[in-house]
Amino acid sequence: MNYLKKTVLMTVLLGSLWLSLVQIAQAGQVVDPGCNTECKMCASTCEKTLNYCQTQSGKHNDSEHIKALQDCISTCKQSSDFMNRGSTLRTLACSLCEKACLRCAESCSAIKGDKMMQACAVECKKCAQVCHKMNQ
Question: What CATH topology corresponds to 31-134?
């Protein structure tokens, strides 16, 4: 994609994001774009980690570990969706997301010597911290 097309695409995307935030603000809802971004990043990281774990054996493919990753992905996406819509339930979604992220971080941290697991744990901890701040 050439530079002009990239610039136009980025302008359109940023304009859409700004418009969404303005509409939510006008509706009296407060959204933390940093939390939304972090939830999306965490979901993406966990999806990559889940795909990786499903190709491995042992602890990587343990059913409880897989569920922890799936729960984290699901709650991160749900929290992002609730924030995007300015839902009055977004703080509850963030509370659940925080718990799922901490559980996933713990599960990933338990698999020692694997850089992908440790990176996922770090991302989940970051997301949990941001979600915690949303609930205060």
Answer: Substrate Binding Domain Of Dnak; Chain:A; Domain 2 (1.20.1270)
